[in-house]
Write a structure and sequence with these properties.
The complex is a heterodimer of chains A (407) and B (259). Chain A contains twelve helices and ten strands. With 407 residues, chain A is of the alpha+beta class. In chain A, α1 packs parallel to α4, α4 runs antiparallel to α5 and α7 runs antiparallel to α8. Classes of the chains: A alpha+beta (407), B alpha/beta (259). The complex binds flavin-adenine dinucleotide.
């Protein structure tokens, strides 16, 4: 057993930290108030290679491992959740699905530009009337010769107005039994006729990001854009969540760290009853808990990262890590606000933003309730993971660092 | 064309440095590349890319200075070298400069040696001039822009930012320059650079490898002490308008001989 991060891990982590702290942090409050995404964020993350961090070099990525992805997510969310959301959808839910399920041709056409940061990617599963209950979706895909005709509306879609490529789930068979067996996955691009998208405003958190909707009205999707087989969509979606949840959990660890670091600073600055507030035992208890949540959350996440590197199935472990880290990040934010007193209640300090941002992560990528059902299901033996046709490839440095052959 | 950046690791500028009971400066945060050297490294990368040359990063110091070297490699410099020898413990700037100059000669000399403005920890730049003197190169401090550089004609034209204003200077190469923040926007390491840096085996040269003898020191640090506590008080300037407040503030500052 080896708990040491490598020098590569540490240097990559520092690079992402420097980017987030220097380029995003100084103006984050303004963008959060404006409810707009800083337009420099996506291009800079692309230029710096962050958008392809753990994709093999032969597919335009940087060839780092899955643990580096988690470290990057922690650093990004330490500054603002919206940065990590980019990694969750662009990388976890979309690019990694292409790596896992895509044909070589699809990888060349979609994964390469995404990993290079030339195209941004998103994930469209949720609908106005279908969230946790994925199989209740009503979007349809009708096969007509060499194309599918897609109709339907997707809602609460991160990067809806920023992404170029969408991984979309729709029913090719509305009478399938079980119902989820009728779902198929497609790659839809924003330039396709009949595709429209918009942002949702008035959200509690992730206000410096983009969350929106898109609608498909008789969108013609060529058959080459179908990911996996007809009827395989539900399994693809669930495997995407194994990766998306990993990034969400890793980010939540960063949010706990943000709460802890800001609280530690304030504990030394603020005095009451003749001593700094860090000297009061009830305040110390909050700090001790935050440290515990951070340490435990980080261990859970890094272990799932290690499992991904090894090519081991990690659905249960990822669910546990995501559930624990996101729940604790909300608690940590509440405690951080409490430590900051009235100042914590104002946007003069960052901690109120942590709470607003953290609350989203106990809803998306499986609500905390869904994760509890999953964990109980595994423990009671009601739920067993079956092998899937395409597993996420194990990390092999030699393969990951092999350069593309230029023909 | 060969450019050499001379660097060291320093405590992060955000680190709280205190002198401990044994009289040694301590801090908890990790070491980082001397912040001024980020500009030097970036300038070297830009030059090497534009002129298809070689760029080396060099330090004189213990293993903790590898941090700065690796950062330089990760940002895009080609090779790194470190000089260390027990005889260098507590070295003064002159001995330091001798070691740097000898290492540059061992590297096969340089067309341009770039330093950051100063060492952020010592707040000193005397070593820049000492290295130039030891090498017999021209020296240009406070460089805010390289306007022209011609490695085959061996000439350089720079803009220097001085208290009195800007100065345009031409010089022959090889030269030693010390650069200011205005010179560029520091680059981040690339992921490919990070991998290269992590794998790099950095040679360590002793004084004997450089054919040097530590000799006797001219200066020696005898003690460190914490700076005296600064006692201050805050005064809020009241006034009906911003202009009135500003006028009052200016009066106070003149009265206190601040301006
Ligand atoms: C900021 C943000 C970004 C998002 N980004 C994306 C995205 O990029 N792509 C995407 O596809 N979706 C996205 N979503 C949608 C998200 O995944 C869904 O909101 C989530 O799956 C929950 O679905 P729902 O909102 O419809 O809630 P519902 O499923 O309607 O749930 C309502 C409540 O009932 C509970 N509940 C439901 N079923 C059960 C049960 N069986 N037992 C116990 N309790 C239950 C839930 O836990 C919840 O508390 C995003 C959401 C947010 C807030």
């Amino acid at each position: 057993m080896d708990f040491l991060l490598t020098e590569e891990h540490l240097m990559a982590q520092k690079m992402v930290r420097d980017f987030a702290q220097k380029e995003v942090y100084p103006t984050i409050k303004e963008w959060d108030r404006k409810q707009q995404m800083n337009p420099d964020v996506l291009p800079r993350m692309g230029e710096l290679g962050i958008l392809g961090i753990n994709i093999p070099m032969m597919y335009g990525g940087q060839g780092f491992d899955y643990i580096t992805l988690a470290l990057a997510c922690e650093e990004l969310e330490r500054v603002d959740t919206t940065l990590r959301v980019v990694m969750s959808v662009h990388m976890g839910l979309n690019s990694m699905a292409l790596l896992q399920w895509g044909t070589e041709e699809q990888k060349q056409r979609f994964l390469v530009p995404q990993a290079k940061g030339e195209k941004y990617a998103a994930f469209g599963l949720t609908e106005p009337n279908a969230g946790s209950d994925v199989a209740a979706m009503t979007s349809t895909a009708r096969r007509e010769g060499d194309v599918y005709i897609l109709n339907g509306e997707k809602m609460w879609i991160s990067l809806a107005t920023k992404a170029d490529n969408f991984l979309v789930f729709a029913k090719t068979d509305t009478h399938a039994n079980p119902t989820h067996a009728g779902i198929t996955a497609f790659i839809v691009t924003k330039d396709m006729k009949g595709f429209t998208a918009g942002d949702i405003h008035g959200k509690l958190g992730v206000r410096a990001g983009s969350t929106g909707w898109f609608a498909m009205e008789n969108v013609e999707v060529p058959i080459e854009n179908r990911l996996g087989e007809e009827g395989e969509g539900f399994y693809i979606a669930m495997s995407c969540l194994d990766n998306g949840r990993y990034t969400v959990g890793a980010g939540a660890v960063g949010l706990i760290r943000a709460c802890l670091e800001d609280s530690l600073k304030y504990c030394h600055e603020r005095s009451t009853f003749g001593k700094e507030i860090g000297k009061h035992q009830l305040v110390q208890q909050k700090i001790a808990y935050m440290q515990q949540w951070y340490d435990a959350g980080r261990l859970l996440i890094l272990k799932t990262g290690w499992m991904k590197n090894m090519g081991m199935r990690n659905t249960r472990e990822t669910s546990m890590a995501k559930w624990y880290a996101t729940d604790m990040s909300v608690k940590a934010a509440l405690e951080a606000i409490q430590i900051h007193g009235a100042y914590g209640f104002s946007d003069e300090y960052d901690v109120e933003r942590y709470l607003r941002n953290g609350k989203g992560a106990v809803i998306y990528e499986g609500t905390s309730e869904i994760h509890q059902l999953m964990q109980a299901g595994y423990a009671l033996g009601y739920r067993v993971d079956r092998p899937i046709r395409c597993e996420l490839p194990a990390y092999d440095p030699e393969v990951w660092q092999r350069e593309a052959v230029v023909s | 064309m060969h450019v050499v950046v001379v660097t060291k690791s320093t405590p992060d500028t955000a680190a709280k440095v205190t002198v401990d009971a044994s009289g040694k400066p301590t801090w908890t945060e990790a070491m980082v590349i001397n912040p001024w050297d980020e500009y030097a490294v970036t300038e070297a990368v830009l030059l090497k890319e534009a002129h298809k040359g070689q760029a080396t990063i060099l330090t004189v110091g213990t293993e903790e200075h590898n941090e700065a070297l690796k950062q330089g490699l990760a940002i895009g410099l080609d090779q790194a070298a470190r000089v260390w020898d027990d005889a260098l413990v507590g070295a003064d700037s002159l001995l330091y400069a001798k070691a740097v100059a000898a290492a540059i000669q061992k590297l096969g000399n340089a067309d341009l040696v770039i330093f950051g403005k100063e060492f952020a920890d010592l707040g000193s730049d005397v070593h820049v001039y000492q290295v130039a003197r030891k090498l017999g190169y021209a020296v240009l401090g406070s460089v805010s822009k390289i306007l022209e550089i011609d490695f085959s004609a061996k000439t350089i034209k720079v803009e220097r930012m001085l208290e009195q204003g800007k100065q345009i200077v031409t010089s022959k190469l090889p030269a030693v320059i010390a650069v200011l923040k205005d010179i560029n926007e520091p680059k981040y390491p690339s992921f490919i650079g990070i991998r290269k840096a992590a794998k790099a085996e950095i040679p360590v040269w002793s004084l004997a490898d450089l054919g040097l003898d530590a000799g006797t020191r001219q200066t020696q640090v005898s003690a460190y002490t914490n700076p005296p506590k600064i006692e201050g008080e805050v005064e809020i300037i009241e006034g009906a308008s911003a202009a009135e407040k500003a006028a009052k503030l200016a009066d106070k500052l003149i009265e206190a001989k601040v301006i």
